[in-house]
């Protein structure tokens, strides 16, 4: 049978502590646009990385053009005419576009008829032809560092075409693009299909699937839920299949007791490095005793909202108030002192100094003041005492107590350490960004309990999470961010997970 150009049968792939793909079978027809849909962490990239030879499946088999293959490396995938544009581009900044495209496959011209040399002129010509044929305009002599994101993406696509790929994998290609650029890319993808290529498109965005895909596989927590015919399925059905599932844990929660307003965010706008708005006129407020959760698919502006409140990035419009104080222009440290605790998404880069020991990390926000520092002299005893107390009170497990170098600790215990430190600041506002990402069930439960305890103690809590279950389980109030905007703010008890999911997908608008 050669009806299918790609078949992946009963594929299972495990990583330590997680089954990223669990007995997944898909079959892709030549010349179709096949979409892979699923929440963050559903296993989409892992599945495609195996087709591109970056990992080998633990179980299952792959057939290309009806033949069983073991795809040992990306180079091997390239030989099988499979190409992939990754979520994060893999280009060399100070090389030209041509150099990037031909990298690893330089055509050899012969200098003086004997010496091999890179035939850049010949490559330029071939690239120019390909750009013209597929509408992928680039200036081949420009350096990557001088071109924007959408051009970089075109370079990645040209790189696949230059290697004569027939099966083209796009891993969330529109995540980095503006709406106009997205339309343009979807046109290019249609053009590639019309030229006979087979396309696999990974995306979160239902409307894109609706626009270009023929069929769509839905993954949820590593498992294949279904493969659907896109033309005859509503986006609502797809959204429900993607997020519609039993909440796996139930969290015991006391009734909320809201107090006075602690945080007020008024019409803030944040721009990215290219000057494009990533947070658009967002407003909300959080009361004492309230968990306000922001739901949304990764990259819709949630992290930037947190960064704007903590002062890591400036706002280009709007104001932020903590109680009566306008903190819009305060430094990060002054905001901490004014009463903000922050548990960042990137616990290793932002939350901790990995090569410092636990005692030092636990005092990271306060080392400059008493009791840690007296008349400019650091007080070692104060660090030790504080460290021991927190290790005890927050059940932080480490090999050598306060002396443990934080790098050697497990992710869950690193996170417990950050949370302990931030709670001890007694701030009125606590911001948690993806607080349980990558942690095991035990650590997750510990952290959820801490968050609820802080809420019951009257703190205002901002929770940003990609995990819908976590949001539904913890939040008192839910706001959904989509494409930089806050689409909906409502009491948690008035929303179902499916409704939140629909807002997250941009299916619903208010
Ligand atoms: N190299 C890796 N090592 C350990 N865990 C991984 C690795 N790659 C992915 N994972 C885990 O596997 C799961 C699926 O990840 P991924 O395929 O990237 O999901 P998606 O692309 O759908 O967002 C996630 O829980 C992720 O944390
Ligand atoms: Mg992915």
Describe this entry's structure for a reader.
This protein is an alpha/beta fold and 510 residues long. It has two domains: 4-243, Rossmann fold (3-Layer(aba) Sandwich); 261-504, Rossmann fold, CATH 3.40.50.300. 33% of the residues lie in helices and 27% in strands. β19 and β20 form a beta hairpin. α8 packs across α17 and α14 (411-424) runs parallel beside α15. Mean pLDDT is 89; it is low at 245-249. Residues 15, 18, 20, 38, 40-46, 438 line the site of adenosine-5'-diphosphate.
Quick overview:
The protein is an alpha/beta fold. Helices cover 33% and strands 27% of the residues. A 6-stranded mixed β-sheet has the order 6-9-10-3-11-12, sandwiched between helices.
Q: Report the sheet-strand fraction.
A: 25-35%
CATH topology of the largest domain: Rossmann fold
Question: Biggest β-sheet: count, sense, barrel?
Answer: 6 strands, mixed
Q: Outline, from the CA principal axes?
A: globular
Low-confidence stretches: 245-249
Strand arrangement in the largest pleated sheet? 6-9-10-3-11-12
SSE order and pairing:
Elements: E1 4-15, E2 18-29, E3 33-37, H1 44-51, E4 59-64, E5 67-69, H2 74-79, E6 82-85, H3 97-102, E7 108-111, E8 115-118, H4 120-134, H5 149-162, E9 167-171, H6 179-194, E10 198-203, H7 206-212, E11 215-220, E12 223-229, H8 235-243, E13 261-271, E14 277-287, E15 291-295, H9 302-310, E16 317-322, E17 325-326, H10 332-339, E18 340-343, H11 347-351, H12 358-362, E19 373-374, E20 377-378, H13 380-393, H14 411-424, E21 429-433, H15 441-456, E22 460-464, H16 468-474, E23 477-482, E24 485-491, H17 497-504
Parallel strand pairs: 3-10, 3-11, 6-9, 9-10, 15-22, 15-23, 18-21, 21-22
Antiparallel strand pairs: 1-2, 1-4, 4-5, 7-8, 11-12, 13-14, 13-16, 16-17, 19-20, 23-24
Helix pairs in contact: 8-17, 14-15
The structure holds adenosine-5'-diphosphate and magnesium ion.
């Amino acid at each position: 049978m050669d009806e299918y150009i790609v078949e992946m049968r009963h594929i299972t792939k495990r990583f330590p502590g997680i089954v990223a793909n669990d007995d997944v079978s898909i079959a892709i027809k030549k010349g179709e646009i096949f979409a892979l849909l699923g929440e963050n962490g559903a296993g989409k990239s892992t599945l495609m990385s195996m087709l591109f030879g970056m990992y080998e499946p633990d179980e299952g088999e792959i057939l290309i053009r009806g033949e069983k293959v073991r795809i040992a490396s990306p180079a091997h995938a390239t030989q099988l005419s499979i190409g992939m544009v990754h979520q994060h581009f893999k280009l060399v900044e100070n090389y030209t576009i041509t150099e990037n495209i031909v990298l690893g496959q330089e055509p050899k011209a012969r200098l003086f008829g004997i010496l091999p040399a890179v035939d850049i002129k010949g490559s330029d010509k071939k690239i120019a032809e390909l750009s013209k044929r597929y509408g992928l305009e680039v200036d081949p002599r420009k350096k990557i560092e001088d071109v924007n994101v959408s051009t970089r993406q075109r370079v990645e696509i040209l790189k696949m075409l230059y290697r004569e790929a027939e099966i083209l994998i796009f891993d969330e290609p529109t995540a980095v693009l503006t709406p106009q650029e997205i339309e343009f890319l979807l046109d290019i993808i249609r053009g590639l299909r019309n030229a006979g290529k087979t396309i696999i498109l990974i995306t979160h965005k239902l409307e894109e699937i609706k626009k270009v895909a023929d069929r769509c596989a839905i993954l949820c927590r590593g498992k294949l839920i279904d493969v659907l015919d896109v033309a005859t399925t509503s986006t609502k059905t797809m959204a429900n299949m993607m997020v519609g599932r039993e909440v796996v844990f139930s969290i015991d929660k006391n009734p909320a007791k809201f107090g006075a307003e602690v945080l007020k965010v008024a019409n803030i706008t944040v721009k990215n490095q290219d000057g494009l708005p990533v947070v658009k006129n967002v407003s909300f407020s959080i009361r004492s005793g309230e968990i306000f959760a922001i739901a949304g698919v990764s990259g819709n502006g949630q992290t930037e909202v947190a960064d704007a409140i903590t002062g890591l990035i400036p706002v280009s419009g709007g104001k932020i108030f903590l109680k009566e104080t306008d903190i819009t222009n305060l430094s990060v440290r002054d905001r901490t002192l004014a009463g903000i605790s922050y548990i960042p998404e990137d616990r290793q880069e932002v939350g901790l100094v990995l090569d410092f020991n636990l005692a030092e990390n636990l005092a990271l926000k306060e080392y400059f003041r008493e009791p840690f520092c007296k008349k400019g002299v650091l007080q070692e005893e104060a660090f030790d005492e504080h460290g021991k107390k927190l290790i005890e009170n927050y059940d932080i497990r480490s090999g050598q107590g306060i002396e443990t170098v934080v790098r050697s600790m497990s992710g869950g215990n690193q996170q417990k350490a950050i949370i302990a430190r931030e709670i001890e600041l007694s701030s009125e506002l606590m911001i948690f960004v993806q607080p349980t990402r990558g942690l095991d069930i035990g650590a997750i439960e510990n952290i959820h309990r801490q968050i609820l305890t802080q809420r019951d103690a009257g703190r205002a809590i901002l929770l940003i999470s990609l995990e819908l279950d976590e949001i539904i389980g913890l939040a008192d109030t839910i706001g959904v961010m989509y494409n930089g905007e806050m689409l909906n703010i409502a009491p948690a008890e008035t929303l179902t997970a499916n409704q939140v999911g629909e807002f997250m997908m941009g299916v619903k608008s208010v």
